[in-house]
Amino acid sequence: MDAEGGLASVPERDFDVIVRRFDLPEPTCQRVLRHPDGRRYLDADWAEFELAAEIDGRPHMSVELWDADLDRANEIAMGSRTLLRFTSYAVRHRSVSVGTTLTRALMARGWPGPSRT
Q1: What is the pLDDT of residues 7-52, one digit of tens each?
Q2: Residue 80: is it exposed, middle or buried by C-beta count within 10 angstroms (0-12/13-18/19+)?
Q3: Is the pTM above the cut of 0.85?
């Protein structure tokens, strides 16, 4: 784990590389959201744009965890944030698609786009 950056897994570190390569605003990693039944963690959160992203790895593939993830995603969406979900495969092997999706989502929520310095 990258304690300073709040990164909890290799796919999250790969996601951070995408954020930097696409010159996206820096998200808060592992943001804690309070919920009546406990805490919810967001892998990447851009609170000012009401956008969050989750990176789902292989453990999320079991029916029970997938079902719990969907319930959690619904709760997050009801709280006004848009939640984008990416597989660890997409983050590792389709980084351009992930970066383009993040760019479009952030711009749709008011981010002016990457700086062209």
Answers
A1: 457 778 899 999 999 999 999 988 777 766 667 778 899 999 999 9
A2: exposed
A3: no
Nearest partner of 21 among 111, 112, 91, 109, judged by Cα:
91
With contact defined as beta carbons under 8 Å apart, do 87 and 56 qualify?
yes
Per-residue pLDDT, 1: 35
Q: Considering only CA atoms, which of 81, 92, 102 is closest in space to residue 114?
A: 102
Domain ranges across the chain? 10-108
Q: What is the rounded CA–CA span in Å between residue 25 and residue 50?
A: 13
CATH code: domain 10-108 is 3.40.960.10
* pLDDT at position 41: 77
CB 52 within 8 A of CB 86: no
Instruction: Extract the tokens encoding 41.
Output: 């963690």
